[in-house]
Design goal:
The chain contains five helices and two strands. It has 98 residues and is α+β, with helices and mostly antiparallel strands. Strands 1-2 form a two-stranded antiparallel sheet. 22% of the residues are buried.
Length: 98
């Protein structure tokens, strides 16, 4: 398995279930990856710039979701909003998915 394929799988595993919080199918993690492949864009850059990583999710304990530490499916988000900047920098995404 290639390094990029592992990165894609890790991203999809961490974000599984987030689709229910996103109003546009174009923002879904699978579509982010598909679009990057179609456009020949760097996968890591596409993930770093995705709407998923501009969203902030809070659980009942008031904790902020961090995809590096917990899958979205196990997080049990209660509230969400979008910020102009991603929760992870491209360098952090690269380190996480390496």
């Amino acid at each position: 398995m290639t390094r990029m394929k592992r990165a894609e799988e890790k991203f999809l595993h961490a974000t599984a279930g987030v689709e229910q919080w996103l109003d546009s199918k174009d923002d879904h993690p699978e579509r982010v990856l598909q679009r990057a492949r179609e456009q020949g864009t760097d996968i890591i850059d596409a993930i770093a710039e995705s709407r998923v990583l501009r969203m902030r999710f809070i659980n009942a304990k008031g904790e902020l979701w961090d995809p590096r530490k917990q899958t979205f499916a196990s997080f049990h988000a209660r509230q969400a909003w979008e910020e102009p900047t991603p929760i992870l920098s491209p360098e952090e995404v690269r380190a996480w998915l390496a």
